[in-house]
Amino acid sequence: MSNGIAHLAFTGGRRIQVGYSKSNRSSCKQCRKGIQKDALRVGQLTGSPTEGIGPKWCHPSCFLDFIKGCFAKPEEWFKKYVPDAEQIPGIESLTPDDKAIITDLVALGRNPMRYVVTVTESREASGEIQLVCTNMNGDAVCPNLRPDTKANVRRHVAQHVGRRETEVELVNADGSLFDGASGPSRGAKRKAPGSDSRAALLASAGGA
């Protein structure tokens, strides 16, 4: 049986849904491990309007591998069936940090060569500000940095993760593009491409 969110998304050409697990009953379709209650999950929508539509839930860190196992050209699936993160059904119910995870996931799905790193500021006990750089799983990708320009931060990250600088994209926790360390002389954050096309989002995620 279809849930309302999944049905509207599927008939609208979307094949993805996000949200928090409502129980401990669902398991990840990729790693087969359980998805804990209230944990972030991502689902591929499958089925048909007549027989029912529902999500195949995965852990966010497993979803890319799951789609790779289903399609010969997973990046084409992402480009065709996954909208900008702001328009994904269920996204409005997520915390800012979890929205950033989904934004990273969509970016990586559409362009596998793209390496998205979230940059956040942390104030040390001494009062000094450090930049913390993490991947979509929340793992640190390099030692903390002092506030610096976007170019220098990108260069440092690229060296530590073994990527070309052109493959590294730096974003803030809210999904906007990182333009360098914050400060009174800097302007407002520049939004990531597509962030101004926020559509009316559906009320909540459904499923088990």
TrEMBL record:
<keyword id="KW-0862">Zinc</keyword>
<protein>
    <submittedName>
        <fullName>PARP1 protein</fullName>
    </submittedName>
</protein>
<feature type="compositionally biased region" description="Low complexity">
    <location>
        <begin position="194"/>
        <end position="208"/>
    </location>
</feature>
<keyword id="KW-0479">Metal-binding</keyword>
<dbReference type="InterPro" id="IPR036957">
    <property type="entry name" value="Znf_PARP_sf"/>
</dbReference>
<dbReference type="GO" id="GO:0008270">
    <property type="term" value="F:zinc ion binding"/>
</dbReference>
<dbReference type="Pfam" id="PF00645">
    <property type="entry name" value="zf-PARP"/>
</dbReference>
<feature type="domain" description="PARP-type">
    <location>
        <begin position="16"/>
        <end position="110"/>
    </location>
</feature>
<keyword id="KW-0863">Zinc-finger</keyword>
<dbReference type="GO" id="GO:0003677">
    <property type="term" value="F:DNA binding"/>
</dbReference>
<keyword id="KW-0539">Nucleus</keyword>
<dbReference type="InterPro" id="IPR001510">
    <property type="entry name" value="Znf_PARP"/>
</dbReference>
<feature type="region of interest" description="Disordered">
    <location>
        <begin position="180"/>
        <end position="208"/>
    </location>
</feature>
<dbReference type="GO" id="GO:0005634">
    <property type="term" value="C:nucleus"/>
</dbReference>
